[in-house]
Design brief:
Helix content is 25%, strand content 26%. The chain is built from ten helices and 17 strands. The protein has a seven-stranded mixed sheet with strand order 11-17-16-15-14-12-13, sandwiched between helices. A six-stranded antiparallel sheet has the order 1-2-3-10-5-8, with no helix packed on it. The longest helix is centred in the middle third of the chain and has 18 residues. It is globular.
């Protein structure tokens, strides 16, 4: 039940605060401002604050940990202050009006929120399967799930490499759910297919690959992209394996000791074998030791094995280290290995003039993992596998038996039937 109030109060800083609505779940406040009036630096504890400018111009300064951000807000603009952040609002115009929503509304006198990994004893009863479920029950179930879910927008959510959900992405998720189509064919998903192709081309251009050598596909996470890199490397070196299977050769994969564990999983799935993933030592900064890499390749060759693949990590999971791509490329060229760059964590450096040197040589890589659900804030698990080798994805993944689905010709959009480039059929428009 929402309690409607009209409780106005003028602060010492010169603005008038008027509580419009208040309940246990949220609070709505309207504020009238005069030029120069300012709300001192403050936080909203466990509430998330959203601000909408109705009149005037404002400066909003936010602090969250070591991050400081100053935004200018004008009429019609909305800004969000995450849980745990502090901010200061200053009116730049003669007068101004803003509306603020605080959710959830947490009283100042409430006890501190405690983190507990144990779910309540009756939770499983509340969420148990059985019988039909009406809309009123569904609402209760959703509320129960939200109450027990981890708040990823909390500043205490630090065990992962992503956080929070922005309003724009909630809108995108709703659109994806409303259209509910598959990225397998251009016929089923014409707009999304062409959008994905354009995004792939733009990312390939940002990497530095020339036009005509930019190919890729959306995949469910960085692990899937790393798997696809191994898959395409094997296809390029041993195309006969696709039909006949592996012939007893021992293929070797080289990654740093700080690389993501997904390469071991990919080696398992492809039949390469987890024991044939070589963990190359790193230096004091966590970067791959290039001399140790060459030694490991030479040792492998001396045993009659086939060195196949090297991964240079751009932003390791724990240390954030960037392997020296340029030097690693020289080694892969010398011994004819596929060079993959796992940029799941560090890919935003591509867009930063000051950080781009960390990726020197990336344009020479054969493939690249690009996650957008980390620093770019997209929904889980939006990621891309990118390669400069045209047609390698279709060669590696297309099989017979899909004629009922893929029936376009070369002039009718068949090049956009992106299911032929993936080991997935049904796939969201992430």
């Amino acid at each position: 039940m929402i309690e409607v109030r009209s409780e106005a109060a003028r602060s010492e800083q010169g603005y008038i605060r008027n509580i419009l609505y208040q309940c246990a779940q949220f609070e709505v406040v309207a504020i009238d401002w005069t030029h120069g009036s300012v709300s001192p630096l403050h936080s909203h504890e466990w509430s998330q604050a959203s601000l909408l400018v109705l009149e005037g111009e404002f400066e909003d300064r936010m602090l969250l940990g070591s991050k400081a951000e100053t935004r200018t807000c004008r009429v019609g603009q909305a800004v969000r202050t995450p849980v745990g952040a502090k901010h200061e609002i200053r009116c730049l115009s003669k007068t101004g009006k803003t509306v603020h929503v605080y959710s959830p509304k947490v009283p100042a006198e409430s006890a501190p929120l405690q983190f507990n990994g144990q779910l309540s004893s009756n939770l499983f009863e509340q969420l148990s399967l059985g019988g039909s479920t009406g809309l009123d029950q569904l609402d209760q179930i959703f509320t129960t799930i939200r109450d027990h879910a981890t708040r990823t927008d909390s500043p205490f959510f630090m065990n992962q490499l992503f956080s929070g959900v922005s309003p724009q992405l909630l809108m995108a998720e709703e659109l994806i759910a409303q259209t509910k189509t598959t990225m397998a064919t251009h016929e089923a998903s014409p707009v999304f297919s062409e959008m994905e192709e354009e995004i792939i081309d733009s990312l390939g251009k940002q990497i530095g690959w020339p036009e005509g050598s930019r190919e890729g596909v959306g995949v469910p996470g960085g692990s899937a992209a790393n798997f696809m890199a191994l898959h395409c490397a094997r296809e390029r070196r041993f195309p006969e394996y696709k039909k006949k299977g592996m012939d007893g050769k021992t293929l070797k994969v080289f990654v740093s000791s700080e690389a993501h564990y997904s390469f071991k999983k990919g080696a398992v799935a492809l039949g390469i074998g987890m024991d044939h993933v070589v963990s190359v030592p790193v230096d004091e900064s966590g970067c791959m030791d290039v001399s140790a890499l060459e030694d490991a390749i030479i040792e492998s060759q001396s045993k009659g094995e086939v060195p196949l693949f090297v991964c240079a990590t751009a932003g390791t999971t724990v240390l954030g280290a960037f392997d020296p791509i340029q030097k690693i490329h020289a080694i892969t060229q010398k011994y004819n290995l596929w060079l993959h760059v796992d940029g799941a964590w560090g890919c935003p450096a591509l867009f930063s003039p000051s950080l781009m040197p960390l990726l020197n040589g990336v344009e020479r890589a054969d493939s690249f993992t690009f996650d957008t659900h980390k620093f770019f804030g997209a929904g889980l698990t939006c990621s891309f596998f990118l390669t400069r080798h045209s047609n390698i994805l279709q060669q590696a993944n297309d099989v017979s038996g899909g004629e009922y689905l893929f029936h376009g010709d070369a002039t009718a959009g068949a090049k956009f039937d992106r299911g032929k480039m993936s080991w997935q059929c049904g796939r969201r428009a992430d």
